[in-house]
Amino acid sequence: MANVTVSGLKLGDKIIQDVHTPLGSLLFHKGRVILQRDLEILQAFLITQVAVERPEDRLKAQEIEEGSESVTPAVATPASLSFYEQYEKMVSLVRRAFKSAIVNDIPVLELRSQLELLIDQIAQYNVLTFSPHQMKEQEYMYHNAVLVALTSYMLAKWKGMPQKELMQVALAGLLHDIGNAKVDPDLLFKPTVLTREETEEIRRHTTYGYNLLKNLASINEGVKRTALQHHEKIDGSGYPLGVKSEQIHPYAKIVAVADIFHAMTLNRTFKKAASPYLVLEQLAEESFGKLDVDCVRTFIHRVTQFHNGMVVRLNDGRMGEIVFSDHHHPTRPWVSVKGQIINLVHERHLFIQEILN
Prior knowledge:
Blueprint: E1 2-5, E2 14-15, E3 19-20, E4 26-28, H1 36-44, E5 49-53, H2 55-67, H3 83-101, H4 108-119, H5 140-158, H6 163-175, H7 185-188, H8 196-203, H9 205-213, H10 221-229, H11 250-265, H12 276-286, H13 293-303, E6 311-314, E7 319-324, E8 334-337, E9 340-343, E10 352-355
Antiparallel strand pairs: 1-5, 2-5, 3-4, 6-7, 6-10, 7-8, 8-9
C-alpha cells in the first residue's frame, strides 16, 4: 500500500481506499483500477493523493503466497459471482438463445434461472450509470435485452406491481426483441438508411417474436404480447397492429420505456450513445400520446432520485458534481464545477453528457 500523488499514478494502479471529492461525495470506490480517464477526473477535482496498490506489489504478494503451504483454491459457485460476472453470463446465454431461436428453440427455463441470479444482485444496478464492460457494437441486441429486462423489473416494482409478476415483466424485457433472430442480420446492422421494404421487414420482428413465444407454457401471456406490442403507441400510431392504449398490455408499456432508454444510451453500429439525461428529456416529450405517461413519470422520477454528489461531465467537457436536484426539472440539476454552481435549468445550452461514477 502506498499514498501516491496524482501526478505519480500509473495506469493499472489499484485504488485501495475510497476517493472523495472536496465536497465529500464519493468519486471512486476502492478496488478501481486506474485508467487514463480516471487520471483526468482526479486532476479535475484537484485530488492530491490516492492510496493505491501496484501490480508489482501484487506480484510480490503472490510470490510469498506460493512459497507458503499450498491451499486448495475455492471454487466459485453461480451464486457467488459478482453482478458484472452474472451480467456477462446472462449476455452470453441471450446470445445463444437468439441463435437457437432461428430453429424455434428458446431455452426459457435456463434464461429464467440466470435472470433470477442476476436480479438477486439488482441492488448493484443503477439505470443511469451502469455500463457494460467493453461492449462490441455488434453485441448491442444482447446487451439491450439484458438491460431492458433489469430496467423493466425495476420500473414494474416502482409502479407497485405484485411481486409474483416482477419476474415475468423481466422476462418480457429479456425476450421483447427475440423476433430479431428471424430478421436478416445485414438489415439489423445496416449503417445506411433503410428502404421502405427493409423497414417493413425490420418491423416484422414483433410478429416473428410473438410466433416464437406463443406456444411456450413457461411464460405468461404478458411476455408473449410484449414481444408483439412493445412498438405500439398510446395514440395508435405504432406497429404492427396500430392498437391504442387500452389494448396494449401493461408489460409492453413498461418495456417500451426501458427499450427506448437503452436503445438511445447504448452505442450502435449506426448511432452513438446519447446522454442519459437528454434521453430522459426526450422520453418526457414523447410520453404525450406515444408512451404511457405514468410509466414515463415514474421512471424519470425514480432514476433521478438520490443523485446529489454524482460526478458528471458536461457537454462542454467540464467535470463537476451534482449538488441539487429540482424535482420540477429532474434532468437539469445544479452542478458544481470548481466551486462555481451551474443551474442547468437556466443554462439551456449545457447538459450532462456523461455520468462518471
